[in-house]
């Protein structure tokens, strides 16, 4: 089913009475990046995915975006849909949203799955890189930026063996509105650092990281794992920064085991 909440395009799969999982995509994708998880988990869970403002079909925005707005949107979806303590599953930018959501309202959640993400805010170098990406998009459009950014996210195994799939992911993201792309760059460069909150997380957390992720490498996620009391860490073979797309079997199995273990 597809509907809109405050202009955010929301998609549901599976039985409404089953336990909810909310999937939050990374940059620069939309809800469809989770299709291999949703196909699998919608047999036993109520799967909710959505397009973050500025992406996919959530287009009707001005591009002046902050991480706080992204978290407000998530909270509104949880409240409006009356989701009872869902599990969140966020990748990279979706992980930044999930981490800030934990800080703001962990009491509304059962558990969180963090894929290929980090708790640190951007450092100066990272902020300047985002600023130059915005400048580049303003002068030459967003297509080349999207192509380079996405290509750099995937590991060699996927690039060599699934080049057509990679090409179609790039072409699809190139259809997004550049205002949304720039809005997310602004939101990411101005986001707060959630590291000091990691030790205050009380609910179960699963951390998943592609072994060849060079944007948020396993060492970064292992540090997060050491700081979170009730957490597990799984590294995924043959995967870079987009582990759920690159190796869905291992990612789905890690998520399944985790959900079983916490009795969800
Ligand atoms: C993502 O996958 O969401 C991005 O790599 C996040 C980022 O650029 O920090």
Structure description:
The protein starts with a strand and ends with a helix. Strand 5 (87-91), helix 3 and strand 6 form a beta-alpha-beta unit. Strands 1-2-4-3-5-6-7-8 form an eight-stranded mixed β-sheet, sandwiched between helices. The radius of gyration is 17 Å and the shape is globular. It is of the alpha/beta class and 264 residues long. It is built from eleven helices and eight strands. The protein has helices at 35-41, 67-80, 93-105, 124-140, 143-153, 156-161, 163-173, 178-189, 218-227, 243-246, 248-261, and strands at 2-5, 8-13, 20-24, 46-50, 87-91, 111-115, 205-210, 231-236. The model has no long low-confidence stretch (mean pLDDT 98). It has one domain: Rossmann fold. It binds D-malate. The site of D-malate has 7 residues, from loops.
Write the layout of secondary structure elements.
Blueprint: E1 2-5, E2 8-13, E3 20-24, H1 35-41, E4 46-50, H2 67-80, E5 87-91, H3 93-105, E6 111-115, H4 124-140, H5 143-153, H6 156-161, H7 163-173, H8 178-189, E7 205-210, H9 218-227, E8 231-236, H10 243-246, H11 248-261
Parallel strand pairs: 3-4, 3-5, 5-6, 6-7, 7-8
Antiparallel strand pairs: 1-2, 2-4
The structure holds D-malate.
The site of D-malate has 7 residues, from loops.
